[in-house]
Write a structure and sequence with these properties.
The chain is an all-alpha fold and about 280 residues long. The protein has 3 domains: about 70 residues, no CATH class; about 80 residues, DNA polymerase, domain 1 (Orthogonal Bundle), CATH 1.10.150; about 60 residues, DNA polymerase, domain 1 (Orthogonal Bundle), CATH 1.10.150.310. It is about 50% helix and about 5% strand. It contains 14 helices and 4 strands. The chain has a two-stranded parallel ribbon with strand order 1-2. A two-stranded parallel ribbon has the order 3-4. The radius of gyration is 46 Å and the shape is elongated. The termini are far apart. About 5% of the residues have low confidence.
């Protein structure tokens, strides 16, 4: 048995030479693997372009406050173009509100006048306040012209827009609002009705009385016995429900014999009746 095993591990000369050659090849492969890194040439990657792009990105991400400081400049809010407002940081949505405010006849005479415009927030005003530069407006009117303007009496129920603008304190925007409300009402009965117009809530009545008059003969009345619901509900003092109650009463009881018969409609309060009575009639 042992002899057979011994014969198994014995090699002839040809086999021994093959084993030796194979061993040499294995040794050479091991040595090549261990020292192959010495044969490679070291190469460096150029990161200069990447570093430049990174620097530009960091600049773009600088705090917005620092950028805003660089964009501020001295300006006149009455003459500044759209592009200038946008550079200052005013949003485009607010810019349209500002332009509508100026189209109404508004002029910024002092820095604080900007606060009266809904487009100017407190934060934006504080940022640009010291950069606002409004030249002093020179008065070109002579004392004689001022006297004529003050002494001119404007009848509010017949005045056109030019006459309304001649009233001190009334610009193009408010003149338009007055004409619109006068048309909806049918005319003014008293000065308190002017304070019902949006923007004129704080109107100084006494100063207005010195320059104007109200002639109630020019009030336009509607025939309560023939008017339709769609027309009656448009009156500023009546809503749809109240107008419908008046016409339903007319339908149930026949034509009104006199305007004061409307007081028989219980939901119509005495205060409401006093407000609408001047604008109604029972025959043409």
């Amino acid at each position: 048995m042992i002899g057979k095993i011994k014969d198994y591990f014995q090699f002839n000369k040809k086999e021994r030479n093959g084993i030796l050659l194979l061993s040499c090849l294995l040794l050479l492969l091991i040595l090549f693997y261990q020292f192959s890194h010495l044969l490679k040439q070291e190469s460096r990657t150029d990161f200069s372009s990447f570093e430049k792009a990174l620097a530009e990105l960091e600049y773009e991400q600088e705090p917005t406050i620092e950028k805003q400081k660089d964009s501020l400049f001295y300006f006149n809010p009455n003459t500044l173009a759209d592009k200038g407002w946008l550079v200052l940081g005013l949003p485009s949505t607010k810019l349209s509100v500002l332009r509508n405010f100026q189209k109404s006849g508004a002029i910024f005479k002092t820095k604080t006048d900007l606060k009266h415009c809904f487009a100017i927030t407190d934060e934006f005003y504080e940022k640009v306040e010291k950069y606002i530069s409004i030249p002093e407006i020179k008065k070109t009117e002579t004392p004689i012209n001022k006297t004529k303007k003050t002494n001119q009496i404007v009848e509010l129920n017949q005045a056109d827009s030019l006459q309304l603008i001649s009233i001190n304190g009334v610009g193009p925007f408010y003149a338009k609002q007055i004409l619109k409300y006068r048309k909806e009402l049918g005319g003014f009965r008293n000065y308190d009705q002017l304070t019902e117009i949006w923007g004129l809530e704080n109107l100084e009545i006494q100063k207005l009385k010195q320059q104007t008059s109200i002639e109630t003969l020019h009030i336009r009345q509607v025939n309560v016995n023939t008017i339709e619901l769609e027309q009656l509900k448009l009156h500023p003092y009546l809503n749809y429900k109240q107008a419908k109650m008046i016409l339903n009463y007319r339908k149930q009881h026949g034509d009104f014999k006199q305007v004061k018969d409307i007081r028989k409609i219980k939901p119509i309060s005495p205060e409401l009746f006093r407000k609408i009575a001047s604008y109604l009639k029972i025959h043409d």
